[in-house]
Every structure is written in structure tokens, then in C-alpha cells.
Known about the structure:
The chain is of the alpha/beta class. It has 10 helices and 31 strands. The radius of gyration is 23 Å and the shape is globular.
Amino acid sequence: MRDTLGVLLAGGAGERLFPLTRDRAKPAVPFAGQYRIIDITLSNCINSDLRHVYILTQYKALSLNRHIREGWGPVVASELGEFIEILPPMQRVSKSWYQGTADAVFQNIYSIGSEEPTYVLILSGDHIYKMNYALMKQQHTESGADVTIATLPVSPNQVSQFGVVEVAQNSEVTGFVEKPKETNIRSPFNPDMVDVSMGIYLFNTDVLIPELMKDAEDPNSKHDFGHDILPKLLGRYKVHAYNFVDENKQRALYWRDVGTLEAYYEANMDIAAVAPTFNLYDKAWPMRTRAYQYPPAKFVFGEPGRTGMAINSIVSAGSIVSGSVVRNSVLSQDVRVNSYADVDSSIIFSHVNVGRHCRIRHAIIDRDVHIPDGTVIGYDPVEDKKNYFVTPSGLTVVTRDYSVYENPVSPDFMQVSEGW
């Protein structure tokens, strides 16, 4: 993989994950207790021996930048020319912020060219999956393809969420339609399924750069790989599909877009389950993150009615479950759950203090929140809506400034809220 440059797109605003993305970039949202969402893709890179990676950031990137700098800088060997480097919008070839996925890569065309890679692998920083990119590159070179698209089989009723890829028996791509309402296209490998794009593209550099330049000059383009770049390549270049090989090694393929609060919540609940579908404990495919210096998790008190315990849950380092019960939940670092509290089916971010006699259910608690004694969350949606953010499905999200939801005054809040 030394001749391959990874370009990881991590600049999306993440409106559908609001309010978790109000103060942080979507890839920086915590996942499975101690990780950030972006750690999953970066772990795939390292496990695939891809050690030349640009991360393109844009919105609210401070915590993401800090996480990459302190957690991922030491993973690669700079003296060997390896790097995981953040590239913010530099407006070197444009006066605007990134206008689409293709425009984001185009605006960094000089940085890409300076590395002189033979291949460029385009990745997204907000999906949960395990994939060996080296296998994709192997097929790419052996097939003589100019572009390879990673594909995933999905049910026909899901096609409106994806770019649909029409694939021939020899894996050559003969058609591409971005998010159609429905399609008659079926996978040649499974006639009950449809092959869709995973948002992972491997380009020969001498194909990518001219196409990006041509797209940048097109006033009618959305400057997006799915909408514009890929459909225009067909018939002009050799485009192949790479059928997703899942390193998660379960019977069903695991790939999750955690772009909505509900999808994010369900992915975390799976991690906390007795037999999770996504395996974090596979030593052959380790997940890496920034290491924090916290003491081990602690569980105290064993009195009747005041026993510190966690059942079917993930409890991260530095957390103390003190005379309380945590069920089916994910606790990040440095969380304290005080006596007689009950936490069920919830995600609690770092530095949260849950007061005595609190009852919390089906909720996400953002970092640095103090829950006063006796607070009840997740049991009465009508009451919750008076103080917190509640999704249509009834998931309650509590942030440090949750009172703003009652009387929002920030123009930024209003803009994002309307988008939600």
C-alpha cells in the first residue's frame, strides 16, 4: 500500500446527528465508550497497512483535530515517510468551502499531487465496518481497472439511500444511479439484492486528477462523486466493483451508516449486547483510539437496594458505578453514577455525573452534563420535550445547554434545527 494515498472525508456538518454535532464534527462523535466514529475507518487503514492518509476536515473540527493529533500521530512512523495528516479547507484553488465530496478532494489536489501516489483511495469517516483495503487494491491492479467502487448488497427497498451500481458478471460496472426511488437492477451475485456503493473509491491518480479538474469547471455539477464523477466515467474508463469482504467475520455483512441519532443509538446498543454483531474484541483486527490515562472502572457498595453493578453494558476507564444499577448501556470515560440511580438502555458520554435516585432510560447524555438528584429522563416524552431534545422515535438527547431547546435564540441553532 506504499504507492496508495488515503483521502478520508471528514468534513460533513452532520445535521442528522444534531444536537450531538452542534459543537463537534460528526466523525468526532464518541462511539462504543472509548472510541470516536472516525477511529473505525482509521483502524481499517492501519490494519490494511495504509499509512499515508489525509483527513479532510471542515465544520467544528477542533475536538477532531485534537483527537487525531494526540491519538493517531504516534501510530505512524514519520521517519519512514508515514503520516496521518489533517487538511482543513485552504481555499488554494477555490474561494469557498467544500461544495461536495469531489470538490473537497479537488481543493486538495496540490497536496495529493505532492505525494505522487499511483493510487488514491477515497474514504468516509462516518461509517462502522471492518474492511481490508489491500484486498480491494489487489483486485483493482489485477483487473487492470482505472477505478474500483466498493459495493455492498442491500435489499431493493433500501436503494433510495445509496448509489446503485449495475455490475456485470466479470465485476465491470455498467451503470450507476445515485439514490433512485426504486430500481429494476439486481446483483449478478444475488438476484434478490442490489449492489450499492459504500462510498469507497480507488482511483488511478492519472484518472482522478483530470476528472476532478474537469468537474470543477462544470457549472452544472454538484461536485459529488456519486452524482457527477462516477456516472461520467462509464464508457470512458474501465470501472470495476469490489464486492465487500467483511473482516468482522460474522454470518451477515456488517456495515452501518450512523448518520442519524436512531442509527447511532442502535449501533451502540449492539456493542453493549451479550453477543454483539460488531466485534471489538477481535485481536486479529484491533480497533485503535486515543489512550487516556484514567484508572480502571470501579463498582462499589453491595448493600441491599444499593449495589453497584453493570449488566450487559460497556463501562469505560475512570468510571465509578456507586451503589447504582446500569443495564444495557454504554458509559464513556470518567462517568459517575451515584447511589440508587438506575440507567437503562442509554449512552453516556465522558465526564458525566448522574445524581442519586436518577432514572434514565433510552437516552443519550452528552459530555460534561451534571444530572441533578432525582431527575427522571426517558419515561415521559411530553415532560422531556420541555427540557431536552427528543426525536420522533422517542430517543431523548441531553446536552450541557439543554435549556436552550425551550427558548432557542442562536441563529446557528435555528438553522440546524430546521434542517433536522
